[in-house]
Amino acid sequence: MAVFALHAAPNEMIDCRYIDSVDLTIANVGEKAFDVLVEMKDASGILYLSLCEVKPGSVHIQTNLLTRFASFDLLVVTNLNQSKATSLTIIAKNQGATVAVFTHDNCERMN
């Protein structure tokens, strides 16, 4: 499995106090379809959970995943053994305006 994790909390590198929602784009830049599990949670539990297939050359987009300025953890898990076929873009927003853009390079990776 390829696992990507992104953490946001007050006064951390990604400061949740300025983020009320995120958009997530998952792109398959490889030659084989893969399944992807997306989980976003905060201190109270799971905020968002999704399982889908991403075909080669296609993208899967989830918009307006609400964080409400609270700490959150975003976890993206694929059924691939390596992460190189997966491209992530996470757009952090405040009242609809983009405040930051993160990619798979900003995520903690676990292969």
Q: What overall geometry do the principal axes of the alpha carbons give? A: globular
> Can you tell me the number of structural domains?
1
Please mark out the parts with pLDDT under 50 across 5 or more consecutive residues, or reply none: none
Order of helices and strands: EEEEEEEEE
Distance between the termini: 6 Å
The CATH class assignment is Mainly Beta
CATH architecture: Sandwich
Number of helices: 0
Number of strands: 9
Describe what this molecule looks like in 3D.
The protein has 111 residues and is mainly β. It has one domain (2-110): Hypothetical Protein Tm1070, Chain: A, CATH 2.60.290. Helices cover 0% and strands 61% of the residues. The protein is built from no helices and nine strands. It has a five-stranded antiparallel β-sheet, with no helix packed on it. A four-stranded antiparallel β-sheet has the order 5-2-7-8, with no helix packed on it. Strand 7 and strand 8 form a beta hairpin. It is globular. The mean pLDDT is 96.
Q: Summed up, what is this model?
A:
By secondary structure, this protein is an all-beta fold. The chain has strands at residues 2-8, 21-28, 34-42, 45-54, 59-66, 72-78, 86-94, 97-103, 108-110. The strands form 2 sheets. The protein has a 5-stranded antiparallel beta sheet, with no helix packed on it.
